[in-house]
Amino acid sequence: MLDPLRQGLPPVDPASVSEAASCALSCRLEGVGEARQFARSTLGRWGLGELTDDIALVVSELVTNALRHALPAAEPPAPAASACGPDPVAPESPVRLHLTRWTGRLMCAVRDPSEESPVAQDGDDFSAECGRGLFLVDSFSDSWGWHPLAGTLRGKMVWALFRL
After folding, report:
1. Burial class of residue 12 in the structure, from the number of CB atoms within 10 Å of its CB (0-12 exposed, 13-18 middle, 19+ buried)
2. What pLDDT score was predicted for residue 11?
3. What is the mean pLDDT, run by run of 10 residues, along the chain of 164 residues?
4. What angle do CA 132, 138, 144 make, to 5 degrees?
5. Residue 72 confidence (pLDDT)
6. How far apart are CA 75 and CA 68, in angstroms?
7. Burial class of residue 135 (count of CB atoms within 10 Å of its CB; 0-12, 13-18, 19+)
């Protein structure tokens, strides 16, 4: 059921990107709320309010996974404030949310410092408090996947794609 696309995003013409924004997130669980708020305000500015609830849920799950599973155990606490906006000027955070809009598509992606693949929990207990995040991402998005980062950046990008 959950077979993320390991090779990365489906091909998209970079010239068709109409809008993009990113947000450096706090490395505490407050970063989840920051990400949700950033997604809601960005989608509102882009006139995509009808998608807000689904995308905010997916963003919450992706950021929660990054904060719980992708940060090194000795990660120093991040400042309480995040730096969210089209071009934030702030210290680089190891966890970052990216929203990109193409003609007919919207992608939300979370960058984190881990090179480990996201792993869906096995089990059929859909009332469980934990372990359902990637099932929700799979259910609410049109596709999702991940890819390792290259160059000077270490870690991975986990993304979810929505048709507009």
Report:
1. middle
2. 61
3. 52 75 91 96 95 95 90 54 46 85 92 86 56 85 90 89 93
4. 125
5. 73
6. 12
7. middle
**Residues 147 and 9: beta-carbon distance below 8 Å:** yes
Secondary element (H or E) of residue 100: strand 96-102
| Cα–Cα distance for residue pair 36/97, rounded to 1 Å | 10
What is the distance between the alpha carbons of residues 44 and 40, in angstroms, rounded to a whole number? 6
What letter does residue 70 receive in the DSSP assignment?
A: I
pLDDT of residue 161: 94
The reported pTM is 0.79
Q: What CA–CA distance (Å, rounded) separates 63 from 4?
A: 17
Contact (Cβ atoms closer than 8 angstroms) between residue 76 and residue 132: no
Q: Give the span between the Cα atoms of 87 and 141, in whole angstroms.
A: 26
Contacts of 103 (CB under 8 A, 6+ apart): 16, 18
Which pLDDT belongs to residue 79? 45
Secondary structure E strands in 8-95: 17-24, 83-85
pLDDT value for 140: 95
Give the residue from 9, 51, 48 showing the smallest Cα distance to 161: 9
